[in-house]
Structure formats: C-alpha cells, structure tokens
Amino acid sequence: MRNTKVIPLAVLSTLAALLILIVWHQEISFTPVLPSFGRADTNTKSARPSSDGFVKTSAEFKHLGYLKYVYTRSGYGGASKNSVLIASSIANENSFGKGRTFKDFLDVIESLDYHKNSLNLAMYCGSPALLRMVKDYFEAVTSDASCPYNQVTVLYAPFLQSVFKSSEHNPKVQRLRRRSIAKGRNFVLLNSLESEQYTLFLDADIIRFDHTDMLTRFARSGKDIVVPRIERGGSLDYDRNSWRGQRVIPSDRQLQLMDEDKWDEAAFVPHDVEAEMYHLGYQAEEVKDLPISDERRDMSYSVELDSVGGAVLFSKSIIYKQGIVFPTMNIVGTAWLRKEGYDGIETEGLCYMAQTLGYKCFAMPNLVAQHFDR
User: Where is the signal peptide (predicted)?
Assistant: First the structure.
C-alpha cells in the first residue's frame, strides 16, 4: 500500500519539475525588450530568430500613443564597455537634405571608424512615410543578418510631430521650434538608452565626418560632454549653439512682461554679448596659420564650453541616467511667477543642468563634421 502512494507522487513531482524547466527556458529565450506595463493597452509581439539572425519585438502602446520596434541580434547580451548608442530624432523623409535618403544617412554612420558591434542605433521617426522607410530598411537588413549593429530601436509618436522646418531660424518661433526638438531628443533617448556607456546624438543632415576617428577620440578623451566643429558650405562654424561666454540679459521691463506671460510684447531673443563670446569658428581662424606641431592644431585639442550644439553631440550616458536631459523650456532666468526663463532651451540648457552634478562640456574644434548645404 505504501508503494502505490509513493510512485504517483514521484511521477507528479518529476512532471512539475519538467514543466517549470520548460517555462523558465521560454522566458529566457523570449524575454521582451519592451516594458510589460499596461498590458491591457499594449500589443507586443516577438518573432523567433534564426541562429545568427535578429529578434524583432514590436509594441503598440495605445494608452501612451506611440509605437516601438526593436531589432536585436540573437545572442546579444547587452551593451558593455565602450558601447555607444547613436540616437537621431528625424522630423520626416526630407530631413536628410535635398537629394539624400535615409540610406545616405546610414552610410555616414557606417563611415565612423569604431567597432560596429559596439554600436546600437535609435531612430525617432516624425512622419508615417519616414517610419515606413526606416522600418522597411531594417526589416530587410535584419532578415538577412547583414545589419552590422547589435540592436536597433525605431520609434513613432504622432503627438510629437512638428510643424517647424529644420531650416526655420525666425527668432519669433525659435523658442517653440527648439521646444519641439528637445521633446524629440528626450523621447528617443528615454525610450532607447539601456546600458550603453556613451550616447552620440546625430542630426540627419550631417553628410560627412572629415575625421572618421572622431567617435574614438571622444570616447578616449574621458570628457563628459563633447562636440566637434560643424561646417556648412563656406561657414566654418555652423552650429552656433556651441559657445563659451556671456549672453544678453533681459531688461527689467522685459522680465516683468515675461512674468505677465506677455512673451510677444517682451520680444526678447537670446543673443551673445559679442565682446565676451567665444565660438568654435574663432578657433579655426586662429590656428590655420600655426605650425602643425602646435598643440592647438592637435586633433584631440579641446576647449571648455558653457553650451553645446546638437548636430553631433557625444555624452557619457550616465549623465542622462541621473536625470540630465534636454530642457523643453528656457531654464536660465526661471522664477515662480514666470512660465519659463529667457535662455537655455534644448542643447543650450544641457550643460547648464549637467554642471550642477559636476559634469563639464567641451569641444574638439579641430575635429569637423559637414552639414548639408542648402
């Protein structure tokens, strides 16, 4: 009688152990890349990869209003030392410059002299047409495993679509335009950055790196936040948001109007105090006739900045992990009575925030990236 009871219990125990093992194995093999919160409003799908292929995970966050697609190489164990997330917030299919395509932009990224298996990509697509273009491309290169990167994240959020053109520099709309840009940068960052050691923001209309070892030099420098100099056509310093010095402060009357939320009447536009300002173009002019042996002509020569531009922007990812992001409002000159300050929006507020945690911003002005010239 004792044996007839023990044997079924042993069999049941064995079956239970096998069931647990099978479930555990499936969870390890198909751990979703995307968060699982809000399942009632989230449709998440994962596809089984080939042995050397990619897993595609797609999620529609209906309750949040955005889509996320992640392509991950099979066997990828997560980012490690010297890994870089290259992130881009792209407004639409025309953002690459006239006559250029998304593939041209990827060619610029691939020109970087950096181990491709240390690079991950993240793209925010600002239009349905661009989303289709980007998705179709990565569907193809991940299907045949020709994609050189370990992980690619593609995002689409209709509520972030902007009415401003990238070439729009009208002072009256700059605050609103740059608020939109900051939202896009933050969105792609917060929805893609994982354990990559560094982050490189790259605008879609960068057409060439004159120095393809730029990313390597940034990483080896140990600097917290670094930018190169951006040229466009005949301009030696196109990204004027990289600077060190003093900016004009609003008058008392203008500050009062800001407190009263009369921004149009205040008519204040942030600008330089010319005699107290340094831009990277000054460096280019100063060193062009110096001997090549002068340290100021060294490719890794750096200068400290108070503000950085975002066309090509390198940072230690741990800075973002601590809450430093791109301000969607002017943070310089804020007050409780005022909805926002009068300066320091988007990339121009990044260093202002980062310095409170002990981080510093730099430029390597002898390293050059070329911007599309309209």
Answer: none
